[in-house]
Specification:
Family (chain B): Belongs to the binding-protein-dependent transport system permease family.
Order of helices and strands of chain B: HHHHEEHHHHHHHH
Number of helices of chain B: 12
Oligomer: heterodimer
Membrane topology (chain B): Multi-pass membrane protein
Strand content of chain A: 5-15%
Low-confidence stretches of chain A: 1-19, 318-331
Helix content of chain A: 40-55%
Helix content of chain B: over 70%
Strand content of chain B: under 5%
Distance between the termini of chain B: 8 Å
Protein name (chain B): Glutathione ABC transporter permease
Strand order of the largest sheet of chain B: 1-2
Keywords (chain B): Cell membrane, Membrane, Transmembrane, Transmembrane helix, Transport
Mean pLDDT of chain B: 87
Structural class of chain A: alpha/beta
CATH class of the largest domain in chain A: Alpha Beta
GO biological process, one term (chain B): transmembrane transport
CATH superfamily of the largest domain in chain A: P-loop containing nucleotide triphosphate hydrolases
Largest interface: A-B, 88 and 89 residues
Largest sheet of chain A: 8 strands, mixed
CATH superfamily of one domain in chain B: MetI-like
CATH architecture of the largest domain in chain A: 3-Layer(aba) Sandwich
Number of helices of chain A: 24
Distance between the termini of chain A: 69 Å
Number of domains of chain A: 2
């Protein structure tokens, strides 16, 4: 299990270039599933060829040679209490068990799927009646209903088969109905209906092929049970009746002699186990292949702190693409007293063979009581930059591949997990975008605030609760004593964001990292939140790193702005410099996208083309392909962030004309 | 809350009625004439006709159901012909033993299932996760009746650590320690499959939850990882696992049939198997109705519990 090769089935397949491997290849990559497939196939083949194998008649008794142990002469697995050859009986019994289990499974799949498809396709009253019936059947403890059926029909292998099949119908019906409901209003079904196809043809030609994978998944997960349960009924004496024998009834007979002849119960029981285990292994493999969510490997658990691997990083001295100001001296002056300074930050996502350079060498600083905006389109790397600062990028697949984040003179990436944890929510706090998904749904907002307070202060729950109420009052939530008991889903979007801000303020941070805090809110609420943040900044002297895509918001709150494109800062300066005199063509286009009041005739110019994929960045300017000023030099090599004076800097060979006052 | 429980109790009534209908319909599948079966093939036609009238077999299916149901509601489940005593007395006596066994199993599988799932998720792809995942797969693939036999052979016959079978020792038993000693093996065996199912579900739910934004928020607050996992993630995962624990109660109650047979536990499962073999239909009917009803009740309990944990679930 632990050999390194087996980890190949967990890595993520590259998305571009190579096509998705075929299902069989995927199965072969999953070693356990492959093992299951091989064993299961082996058992099937053995069962199929049993009649032609040179075996003794399984029912031929031989009292002189009863209860022989395994490996006896002429009886490889020994004999039972009547002297019958156990190997022969085992193979014939396996044949019966397999046949019964698979038939029951097909039976359940056929009727269950039929009910599910019809119920899901017709909906309404048909659906209601059928599903209530299914619910009724599911209200029985699983095997109990099978027992009742066998009780009525009488013990016997066929009756056991029917019983087990019937109790498994609901699993199919429910799963298949769910999928059918999901596709019944899709375009291809509608168009089939419009083209005049009848219900039956639509069901067979449009619906059935699409629900087939779910039928296969459900079968692969239930066929093992069904073999197990029919064997169980036989074990209880309610299934196969002598002289007919399946694995379960052999085990039931062997059980009586368990202390004298262990092999009589160990071998058939072991056979059931091996058979069911191989089916389950195979079934898991099939499910993993057919279930796209598992396949993408997205279910990997994120670590508490982003993985840091700066082995390929050549240090901040490298005067490469990430530098802000040409002269190191000037830079030091500017950053003196900065609360946060980021140098050449590089964050990558490794997916299969591809490396996505989401943040490719970003440097900036935030001074005391300063608000710096980080602006860019979605996918520009601004949020990843924000999350990287305190190691909150999900990892896997994220990795900090280089750079330094200096908080009060210390590099966050050199710290221990506990030290980073002490900073999170302490000296530096986050406000996230969508407060419905970022607040825990099952804890009251008061409770979540108390947690934030008590994570950094040794105070009693009661004291913390009072502080929480104070915080809610501070962010102007009406009736805070009562609101503290509310759950996030009971609050409006604006209220939730106020709670998010209150949570960030819980330990009077020096720096607030606000990751699009107003994006999910409507405009009036947006204005309120911005006003609130501005007030808090004035009252508490907090610094803010404000991530947004909205230049309107930037002009309201930010002192300085950094514009990001394809993982790099392309322009930086005071808000006034950047907004009034954008130097980078990209910034210019971005600002032109913002509609302004009173300029009705102005054309809103969307930027043609798309940003380059960050796993396939060009050598030169990443914006060149979308830029009408681009020249050959733009594509030739890396371009530095060049100072224009007064702290204004741009990463462009042919910047727009800048008129400094 | 009270309103919610009340509403659920009222909604239970049609489900219970549906259960009795299904049981009744299944029993009406029985081929042949029950009167003939009871009296044997030497019975005279007059006797058969009289018994048929006594049993109400000459009435319509619906009125037969109605008589059966109203009798049950009055506590009359009929008389077991093989045991010659009222069905309800026998069923209730046996049901106590099954409840002890199933209750202990359900506790075991809940505790160990959740624990295994959480550890597996936290150590995802580590050796602990791989080992546990494999063990869990064995657990859900192994026939419980076979596992019970093998455990019995090892721990009772070979090592003599635990009693072989039964609920109490015949001589000098009858107290709680004696019961517990007898309970260990059957309860563990019965819990194995359900533990596996709960563990798998807990693992996948934990992994799902750990990717959520609110977990990132918890980390951004500076909470330590233990708190993030065991308070924030676990509570969110638990909400999804609880209904499945309710479903597992059904598997445990059903699986008790095998385990009671293997360990000679005097519960309702073993009673049912014997009753089926002796074709004591009234006993089967009564047993199935009582067990199914208790399962419905347990699921109600699980729903209420989920409702208590998750404020978003509407009544």
């Amino acid at each position: 299990m632990s050999n390194p090769a087996s980890s190949t089935n967990m890595t993520i397949k590259p998305r571009k270039r190579s096509a998705r491997p075929s299902a069989l290849k995927l199965l072969a990559r999953n070693h356990l599933a492959l093992m299951g497939a091989v064993i299961f196939a082996g058992v099937i083949i053995l069962a199929l060829i049993t009649p032609w194998l040179p075996l003794v008649n399984p029912d031929a008794t031989d009292p002189a040679n009863r209860l022989l142990p395994p490996l006896s002469d002429g009886h490889f697995l020994g004999t039972d209490h009547l002297g019958r050859d156990l190997l022969s009986r085992l193979l014939w019994g396996t044949r019966v068990s397999l046949a019964v289990g698979i038939s029951a499974s097909l039976f359940a799949a056929f009727f269950g799927s039929a009910i599910g498809i019809i119920s899901g396709y017709f909906g309404g009253r048909t659906d209601n009646i059928m599903m209530r019936g299914i619910d009724m059947v599911m209200a029985f403890p699983y095997i109990l209903l099978a027992l009742a059926i066998v009780a009525a029909l009488g013990p016997g292998l066929m009756n056991a088969l029917y019983a087990i099949a019937v109790v498994n119908i609901p699993f199919f019906a429910r799963n298949i109905r769910g999928v059918t409901v999901g596709i019944v209003h899709r375009e291809f079904v509608d168009s089939a209906r419009l083209s005049g196809k009848g219900h039956i043809r639509i069901l067979l030609s449009e619906i059935l092929p699409n629900v087939m994978p779910v039928i296969v998944i459900t079968m692969s997960t239930t066929v093992g049970w069904m073999i197990l349960e029919t064997a169980g009924l036989s074990f209880l004496g309610l299934g196969a009746q002598p002289p007919q024998a399946d694995l379960g009834s052999m085990l039931g007979e062997g059980r009586k002699l368990i202390t004298t002849a262990l092999h009589l119960s160990a071998i058939p029981g072991g056979m059931i186990f091996v058979l069911v285990m191989s089916i389950n292994l195979l079934g898991d493999g099939i499910r993993d292949i057919l279930d796209p969510r598992l396949k993408s490997g997205a279910l990997a658990r994120p670590a508490p702190v982003t993985r840091i691997d700066r082995s390929t990083w050549d240090g901040p001295a490298h005067a490469g693409s990430g530098h802000v100001n040409g002269q190191p001296g000037a830079k030091r002056d500017a950053e003196k007293g900065a609360i946060l300074s980021v140098e050449d930050l590089r964050t990558e996502f490794v997916l299969g063979d591809d490396v996505y350079k989401a943040v490719g060498g970003v440097s900036f600083h935030v001074g005391r009581n300063e608000c710096v905006g980080l602006v860019g389109e979605s996918g520009s790397g601004k949020s990843v930059t924000a999350l990287s600062l305190l190691g909150l990028v999900a990892s896997p697949p994220g990795t900090i591949a280089g750079g330094r984040v200096m908080l009060d003179g210390r590099d966050v990436f050199d710290m221990h997990e506990q030290e980073i944890r002490a900073i999170r929510g302490g000296r530096a706090a986050y406000v996230f975008q969508d407060p419905l998904s970022t607040l825990h749904p099952l804890f009251s907002v008061g409770d979540q605030l108390v947690e934030a307070i008590r994570a950094h202060n040794r105070v009693s729950y009661k004291e913390a609760w009072q502080k929480a109420v104070e915080l809610l009052r501070m962010v102007r939530i009406p009736n805070p004593e009562k609101r503290a008991d509310s759950y996030p889903h009971q609050l409006s979007g604006g209220m939730r964001q106020r709670v998010g801000i209150a949570m960030a303020l819980a330990n009077e941070p020096e720096l607030i990292i606000a990751d699009e805090p107003t994006t999910a809110l409507d405009v009036t609420v947006q204005a309120q939140i911005l006003k609130l943040m501005n007030n808090l900044r004035e009252q508490h002297g907090t610094s803010v790193l404000f991530i947004t895509h909205d230049f309107g918001v930037v002009s309201e709150i930010c002192d300085r702005v950094a514009v990001m494109y394809a993982g790099q800062i392309v322009e930086m300066g005071t808000t006034q410099q950047v907004l009034e005199n954008p130097a980078h063509p990209y910034t210019k286009r971005l600002i032109d996208c913002v509609p302004r009041l009173g300029e009705t005739a102005r054309e809103i110019a969307a930027i043609p083309g798309l940003p380059p994929a960050v796993n396939d960045l060009p050598v030169g300017c990443a914006f060149a392909d979308r830029c009408d000023r681009a020249a050959d030099a733009c594509r030739a090599g890396a371009i530095d962030l060049d100072p224009l004076g007064d702290g204004h800097a741009v990463r462009c060979i042919k910047p727009m004309e800048v008129r400094h006052a | 809350m009270h309103v919610y429980i009340l509403r659920r109790l009222v909604l239970m009534i049609p489900v219970l009625l549906g259960l009795t209908v299904i049981v009744f319909l299944i029993m009406s599948l029985i081929p042949g004439d029950p009167a003939l079966a009871i009296l044997g093939s030497y019975a005279t036609p007059e006797n058969i006709a009289k018994l048929r009238a006594d049993l109400g077999l000459d009435k319509s299916l619906f009125s037969q159901y109605w008589i059966w149901l109203s009798n049950m509601l009055h506590g009359d489940f009929g008389r077991s012909y093989s045991l010659n005593r009222p069905v309800l007395d026998e069923v209730l006596e046996r049901f106590g033993a099954t409840l002890i066994l199933a209750g202990a199993s359900l506790m075991l599988c809940t505790v160990f299932g959740l624990l295994t799932g959480v550890v597996s998720a936290v150590r995802q792809y580590g050796w602990a996760d791989k080992t546990l995942t494999f063990v869990v797969l064995i657990g859900i693939s192994i026939p419980s009746f076979w596992l019970g036999l093998m455990m019995m052979l090892l721990f009772a016959v070979k090592l003599r650590w635990l009693p072989v079978s039964g609920m109490y020792a015949i001589y000098g038993g009858g107290d709680l320690p004696d019961l517990l000693r007898h309970l260990i093996m059957p309860a563990v065996t019965l819990a194995v499959v359900a533990t596996g199912v709960i563990a798998r579900l807990t693992r996948s739910n934990m992994l799902e939850v750990l990717r959520q934004d609110y977990i990132r928020t918890a980390r951004a607050k500076g909470l330590d990882e233990r708190r993030v996992i065991y308070r924030h993630a676990f509570k969110a995962a638990l909400v999804n696992v609880i209904p499945v624990i309710g479903v597992q109660a059904g598997f445990v109650l059903g699986g008790a049939v095998y385990i009671e047979t293997v360990f000679q536990w005097p519960g309702i499962g073993r009673m049912l198997v014997t009753a089926i073999a002796t074709r004591d239909i009234l006993l089967v009917q009564g047993g199935v109705v009582i067990v199914a009803a208790s399962y419905v009740l347990f699921n109600l309990f699980a729903d209420v519990l989920q409702h208590l944990i998750d404020p978003r679930v509407k009544a």
